[in-house]
Amino acid sequence: MRSTLVIASAICMLAIFSCKKGDQGDKGDPGLDGNANAVQYNFGPLDLAANFFGILQINTTEDTMNNSSWHVYIYHGTIKRWYALPGSGVGGATNYRVSIGYENNKVNIFIDKSGAGEAYSKVRVIRIYNNKQINLGLLPGNKAIAGPDVSNYEAMRAYYNLP
Known about the structure:
Elements: H1 2-17, E1 38-43, E2 46-47, E3 53-59, H2 62-66, E4 68-76, E5 81-85, E6 87-88, E7 95-103, E8 106-114, E9 119-120, E10 122-129, E11 138-139, E12 143-144, H3 153-159
Antiparallel strand pairs: 1-10, 2-9, 3-8, 4-5, 4-10, 6-7, 7-8, 11-12
């Protein structure tokens, strides 16, 4: 048993130290400065029980709004838990949805509710700027890039072999 362990260790050491460093590869394209193009915005309390909806405002450009993905989280301090939106809040009694618009050099993030709502001790928004886009699916006029005409039920039914 001990000799097997010694032999296995020797083989591992030989494999690790016998490798030589390869040639340096081509240098990649430079990325944007920052943390994967992500920015975190922190907000204070938001009482969604007392209000029909909440609005979060962030100063930015319309280009940044349109070329970013936005992620919204609400924090319930009593149980020390973050909830991702859209989705249910603490206890599952209220469902929240998020919509985004742009006006007066600000992105407006609307949090609407279905249910009584709850009070949250803080809100966090994470914006990730997309420096590359690949357009798939629909082109203007509901014309599909590939696949069936999604505006035509019969074409969709035939394409997916539905009864």
